[in-house]
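Help wanted!
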Amino acid sequence: MFKKIILSITFSIGFMFACSEGDDMDNSQNDSFDRGNLQTNLADNIIIPAYQDLNQQLSLLVTAKENFITNSNQENLDLLRNNFLESYMVWQSIEMFNIGKAEEIFYRYQMNVYPTNTDEIQNNITTGNADLSNPNNNDAAGFPALDYMLYGTGGNDTEILDTYNNQNYGQDYKNYVSALIGQMKSITEIVLNDWTTSYRDQFIASTENSASSAVNKFVNDFIYYFEKGLRANKIGIPAGNFSSSPLPHTVEGYYVRENSKDLTLQALNDFQDLFNGEHYNTNDSGVSFKDYLNYLDRNDLVNLINNQLDEARAKISILDDNYFDQINTDNTKMTQAYDALQTVVVLLKVDMLQAFNISVDYVDADGD
Amino acid sequence: MKKIFTLLILSIAFISCSSDDDNTDNNNNQSVDTPANYQFTRNGNNTVSYSGQTQRIAMAEELISALKDPTRNQESLNAMFTHVEGDQDFNDPDMLELNASSKNVRSKTAASADYFSSNSTDANAIKANFDSWISSQVNDVFPNWGNTASPGNAGLAQELGGSIRYVNEKGLEYNQAFAKSLNGAFLADQICNNYLSAAVLDAGDNVTNNDNDVLVDGKDYTTMEHKWDEAFGYLYGAEEDETAPVLEADSFLSKYLYKVEADSDFTGIADDIYDAFKLGRAAIVAKNYTVRDEQIEILREKISMIIGIRAVYYLQGGKSEIANEDLPSAFHDLSEGFGFIYSLQFTRNPMTDTPYVSKSMVDGYIDTLMEGNGFWDVTPETLDQMSENIAAEFGFTVEQAAN
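Answered by r_m:
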């Protein structure tokens, strides 16, 4: 009898929940959480500082490039490579902000499409003056193209330096490195300036629950990035999750080889920090998606998301630094990392969006 | 007193719900009857469509038949499994435009939303099993097509009745392993764990769109209706007439539903399944998701039963043939049983939302069957024990399944 009563009460509670959900059919914000505070924290303490950091890193990269072009020796190559890798790490915190000017100018497509197309790069080197903002050159520009230029233009460092010092075509290679870095720096400045001069205010004011509001778009972008930029591009595609066999040449940082894991871990950390509202490169934190879920009494979901992100980090951490080797020796570890990331996708895309009452604005990244 | 209190809460809950419904057009409580046929129209147009399922079943049919053709090479068999749009991989006797189709079987093997979207590791291992059955058939069995099989050596084995079976060194027919495993990995998984899953039926705006009769661009159906039809198509997609299924229309679930229906211990299961498909589809039209979900539970249980029953049936068949001292016949039964056992990991117990028999249990059974010289020396005791264990998971008896 007692059991029955408990059961009935449970059922009744179930009905009540079902009912309250029925009220949420309209598309307005149904809670009084201050989304403006969340967006202000995102803009002022995470997004803009991250862009400022990348802009600064790219300035150092420009200087290192000038020195390398003046004197293409091992020392300058090493310095240039170091700056390249540091900028690439900072980029990991940026790729998820595909909103405002970044979205308008296809910023991330100009910065990080891989695998890069070496035929196109070679063609651009030979012809000179390629329009790097042209979408046709997305796979011949940005970090992946630079990865090839600094690590893939010869079988070893001596050969690479010989390429740049070659009397016939060395200058063409130097010009292309210069053009690549110049373009990356210039479009980063454009996006950063837009944030600091006008977009920041638009972003924090656009709080309504509509398909075009900044908050809805940002949440969608942030999840899309996790699903596509992080889960699929970094792990899933090379591991063969979208093809009949693994594609190890599609890893991020294919030519440098030893940095694929670092880039993924950095991306995962930046993603989790944003979810939790951690300020960029400081120990402070502010209003976040985590707080929003807690406000909606969904601290269960906050814990699930953070735990599963930690689980994914654990699976990624045991991978070889060099994904190319990992895939060729034991691809199962790659797919296990993919599976852990996929579990997070479901929590974000289904559970978190339902809690926020926000619709998904993109078609499945996987296709049928 | 407590009881009254409960009733009170319950009635309040109900009242608030029904008033809620009055305010919207979601007739969530609209009653729904089982239609006579699986026939649904909107403004006079047919809304039922599952051509992709029909195509995939036909592709699987040609592939399992080609696996018995020793003139085939691995490349052409793989191409049938992983067909790419436009490649000339099929004879396509029923003119279903298989070669022009963008569909293939492998991409829907171990590929359900519920079981595999976050488990590509197991999915890859399962797909690799199917790949290996193809390659082993070509590399180990085809070269020995004319040799007599013996323990440790692939070749032919002739049943007392005359039929010739082509087996590997353990007595396993790879073509049977492949074909029967598709019942679970491909068909049941797609039906029970993909198209009938909330992750698919209710994905994105499917519910809102179904509630408001928002149709798929250029089609006469809502996405939810279509997903349901795709589940239906994996069982009835080879039928001449979906409104009067005769079963045994293909070599997969349709055939084995027919066989199970013919066992008097389970007669009625065919109607139970067809009715649940009809009523669930009608419930979607009526926007009554409670009734729909009840049908999903019935379908998951009954379709899983087909696999469980046939697994035990063939284990027992193998045991009888061993007793008859007809090992080649035992090889054939046990090879079919191998595939149905493999399929168990894709079944769906609606009470737990997990397989009736877990993947690790299945792997254990397969290892046991393949131990040593495999079917050459498997014992009746082993087959009985396995039968008992499997039957117990489903709640039928070995005797019921065996005849």
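OP: Thanks! One thing I noticed: The mean pLDDT of chain A is 91.
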